[in-house]
Amino acid sequence: MEDFYRLKDTWTEEEVDVADTVRRFVDREVMPHAGEWWQAGEFPRHLIPQLGTLGVLGPTLPEAYGGSGLSPLAYGVMMQELERGDSGLRSFASVQGGLAMYAIYRYGTEEQKRTYLPRMARGELIGCFGLTEPDAGSDPAAMTTRAAKDGDFYVISGAKRWITNGHLADIAVIWAKDDAGIVRGFIVPTDAPGFHAVPIRTKASMRMSATSELYLDHVKIPQSYQLPDARGLGAPLSCLTQARYGIVWGTIGAALDALTEAALYAKSRVAFGKPIAATQLVQAHIVDMESQLVTMQLLARQLGHLYADHTLRYAHVSLAKRHNARAALMIARQAREILGGNGISTEYHSMRHAANLETVDTYEGTYEIHTLIVGRDLLQEDAF
Ligand code: TGC
Ligand code: FAD
């Protein structure tokens, strides 16, 4: 069920090793407590040093910057194993590695890379990525946060919303328009005067993840905190491509956990004198779920090959993110249904995954936005 098409036969030794290591960690440290942490609405901060030691924070970066130069496929299976535990755990790693660290790696100076990246890889320094604003989510070009030049300083003012890791972070990568209206990136220490992070406590999804509003009230930072090579919206959008790639893989983990739970439950739950697994309608659900899962796995694997071959385009990532987030959500909802009344309890995992996947379907570009990205690529017509 987990590997119906025997894709693991093609895994490299590196992929097998990282998957086993992360799987053991998640089974031991996360699975027994995931429901409880999710209910409490808190990110398990005590796991952060262990996540650093496991090597899941920025693993594709070169060793000089604290990474381990992992292949895109090995990185993918790592994200899959994390999200088998909880989407919030994978989100922590995606934002730290795929967004905040990648932004510094791709657009920062050598000094910025050496100052921040190794400590971020070890989990000693936490980062967040502030692009979305209260009135600019799908359309980040409409952002109103401003970075005004003031001698050798920038003064940043504005608000960001829905920022993962926001109130855990030591540094925030903030995207703001400069005096010429060009989007630029800045490394903002979260203890700078005028910077406030406020947790969002009303979530019915992603409850194990820290999500925040960020307020920047005339936050004055030296020019040396600017990411000099980031000019224009393409810079933050290129970071999104990295994190979206991780989501394509991560969603497989959540879907797999839900499907496995539903299949086990169906075999042991008796109704009308026989296991519900022996009814045609439950089998139809399970086969639909497996069919979706296999499609997700094949998409992710080929996406990984395109990445490794340097032929990956962002529309490829959009199609796979759109498909896999929605397919995982459908699988988790069906799993919840098979579990009946028990399915709504966090003693089981499927409802927690389904609730989380509502966010995953929305963040990093909604289903509709990815439809329009792929539509534009295929038809060369902009329909936003
Ligand atoms: P558009 O003209 O399309 O693009 C501007 C420039 O950027 C380039 N570009 C990309 N480059 C790399 N990767 C991508 N994904 C790119 N998308 C666009 C593009 O080629 C262009 O370059 P150039 O050289 O021609 O200037 O800009 P637009 O304003 O029309 O916007 C297009 C649109 C709607 C696709 C874009 O705004 C978009 O993707 N919107 C969705 C916003 C989004 O996904 N936000 C996510 C915030 S972060 C988050 O959710 C973290 S969740 C936590 C976790 O990951 O776990
Ligand atoms: P809107 O853009 O207001 O969209 C509302 C609806 O309108 C959606 O269904 C959308 O698909 C639809 N829509 C919009 N435009 C069109 C169109 N042209 N055609 C058809 N339909 C359209 N952002 C960050 O910067 N950093 C983070 O770390 C981060 N973490 C997040 C964590 C969580 C838990 C959540 C929920 C969000 C996070 N986000 C983060 C923000 C996320 O990326 C945005 O919520 C997402 O991009 C959608 O933006 P929005 O919420 O403003 O929705």
From TrEMBL:
Catalytic activity as recorded in UniProt: glutaryl-CoA + oxidized [electron-transfer flavoprotein] + 2 H(+) = (2E)-butenoyl-CoA + reduced [electron-transfer flavoprotein] + CO2
EC assignment: the record states 1.3.8.6
Pathway in which this enzyme or protein is active: Amino-acid metabolism; tryptophan metabolism; Amino-acid metabolism; lysine degradation
- Keyword terms of this UniProt record: FAD, Flavoprotein, Oxidoreductase, Transit peptide
UniProt-listed PROSITE patterns = ACYL_COA_DH_1 (PS00072), ACYL_COA_DH_2 (PS00073)
Enzyme class label: oxidoreductase
Residue ranges occupied by any Acyl-CoA dehydrogenase/oxidase C-terminal domain in the UniProt entry: 231-378
Q: Where is the Acyl-CoA dehydrogenase/oxidase N-terminal domain?
A: 12-124
> Which InterPro entries does this chain map to?
Acyl-CoA_DH_CS, Acyl-CoA_Oxase/DH_mid-dom, Acyl-CoA_Oxase/DH_mid-dom_sf, AcylCo_DH-like_C, AcylCo_DH/oxidase_C, AcylCoA_DH/ox_N, AcylCoA_DH/ox_N_sf, AcylCoA_DH/oxidase_NM_dom_sf
PANTHER family annotated for this entry? GLUTARYL-COA DEHYDROGENASE, MITOCHONDRIAL
Question: What family name appears in the similarity comment?
Answer: Belongs to the acyl-CoA dehydrogenase family.
- Name of the protein in its database record: glutaryl-CoA dehydrogenase (ETF)
Organism in which the protein naturally occurs: Sulfobacillus thermotolerans
